[in-house]
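Assemble and predict.
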Amino acid sequence: MSSGGPPTIVSIAERAGVSIASVSRVLNGLGARPETEDRVRRAASELGYVPNAVARSLKDGHTRQLTFAVPDIGNPVYVAMVREIQAVAKAAGYRLLLHSTDADVADELGVVRSLADRTSDGLVLVPIRITPAHVEALTAAPGPVVVIGSLPDGVPVDGVQADSVTGAELAVRHLVESGRRRIALVNGPVDTVPGGNRGRGYRAALAACGIPYDPELVTATDFGVGAGARATARLLAARPDLDAVFCANDQLAIGAVQALHAAGRRIPRDTAVAGMDDSDLAVAAWPPLTSVDLGAGERGRRAARMLLERLAPGSGEPLPARRTTAAPRLVVRGSTSPGAAPAGSDEQEGAKSA
Amino acid sequence: MSSGGPPTIVSIAERAGVSIASVSRVLNGLGARPETEDRVRRAASELGYVPNAVARSLKDGHTRQLTFAVPDIGNPVYVAMVREIQAVAKAAGYRLLLHSTDADVADELGVVRSLADRTSDGLVLVPIRITPAHVEALTAAPGPVVVIGSLPDGVPVDGVQADSVTGAELAVRHLVESGRRRIALVNGPVDTVPGGNRGRGYRAALAACGIPYDPELVTATDFGVGAGARATARLLAARPDLDAVFCANDQLAIGAVQALHAAGRRIPRDTAVAGMDDSDLAVAAWPPLTSVDLGAGERGRRAARMLLERLAPGSGEPLPARRTTAAPRLVVRGSTSPGAAPAGSDEQEGAKSA
DNA sequence: TTGAAAGCGCTAACAT
DNA sequence: ATGTTAGCGCTTTCAA
């Protein structure tokens, strides 16, 4: 008899006067006599039947859910990734489980291990930093994982990374080509993946342009608007002659712009500013920020696709771990180039490729 | 025998030489003889056992997953909600399923219905607009739903809303008190929930301040930076005498600021600008934007809590539908007030409560 | 204290 | 073409 709960194949079978197997078949598009077909469909729709996804998952071993774990969902870069990953997942019929690790290493490792609870079919992980423990956990991952970040060779999971070294070079070169010579660096924590790489790119570009590295022009703080403003103010006090500020992300750059404005400097005439990530913040600033697009959306999209490929039937795990890198793209706007970025034009034509 | 797959209670039982029931008991902290306890725990850890969450869900009827459905994950307002909801969910031991409806009404309705597949225990929905079909679907919702938005009375689901009418009033009043008289409105689509309410707030505030409503000072376009810039340019051309621009969100306000800058107007001296939502964009602008915080994070938090309360055992569905409203808060910054917002101070002290 | 067995809702052999 | 049944991994009566 139909008890209290939501309808199941049993309720339908009773109502249609057939077996549960017939119900299952009809509902899954396998053959049946027209009359049976009819009775089942009618009963199902009368009862408002919706298949129980949990039961189905238990049966066939997958959930059609993907997990995406990020350090901080508020960060525009990760937001761009979430957006793309969710789009790819949705298009492929997968749901997206969003997990915030709050930049906690232990939590990151936990997410990898929790793949074992079969809650999702695979994981896209953005680690804040990659430790030996990460390598270990990743190597023993109980399911498919794609890491967004720089993975050491030998770790048997797919990875997609940004090329922030080249990205930083792009920005610094652009600054140099615009005639800047005393280019400060406002970096984030250097013991994180992004911070480390961006610092290296800065030095490489200076070297390539024949400009000596000057430690006094370099600061490392937290990533954040306030940190950027304070660091820039300090830099300005120590080295009033600086003519450009390169920031490791747009938030820092926004802070730099504010500090510069507050100090009465004109941008870009007196001091140019460039950021990284090309987030929405870049066009919100005045003047609009020149920024390096590190392809966050693109990385998200690729990661999701790689994960889905691992999940596709047939193409099992035997494939070797793959690595891919998204190419950076410099987007020139008013903060470095006087004529750029007319108001009302969202997309900047001045963009040039790596 | 222990076959290929991941360890299950059966593998543990075999290895420990006990029944699966004992395994289950030990692992769930129910009593057992010390020796049994020991053998089971040892076997479990040797095997690296992790309980299968799907099986558990099937058994006890809930997934410990919540769904959050938003029109667009890129929007800073929704990002703020996601962040809070995920935090509340995580703290309560729930996972968060993030769904983007892409502002599609049909998709919104689909999400409500899909509660029936038992993939998640409850839903927080942000509808872009509330149609009769929404009311119908919500009334027949196959599980607990909390709506963030303005729900008609009588719809039997919990709701939390912003008070954008009061919010708009706060901003307009502030503008008037700063001596502005010709205050333009740059609104988003008026057939959406936010657009409609913000327009009403604007008119109400003008009326309260004894300033006549002037249709020529009002535009409605899309929500977006480019749209804001274009609308403001148009307004400026038609009414060069305007002395303030109130925008229905921060993105529009950013656009307005750009258009104003491009037209050579000084902010706030010649023209003041105020936005809404108090997103990260507000502090990225120059001058930093005065904005009305509509409590997006707060709404997310409350919605998540209400949902969790519905889910708590005991306090079943019988509770009547609840409605709650988050109080708006005006945050004054440089775009309306000359002295405000020194660089480097992330939090603005000038904030005053409703 | 412990084991046997039922059952959550579904799919897929297998038998008819 | 359709029904019976086993089984996915777990929890929980019910007996012993």
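The CA atoms of residues 61 and 118 of chain B lie 8 Å apart.
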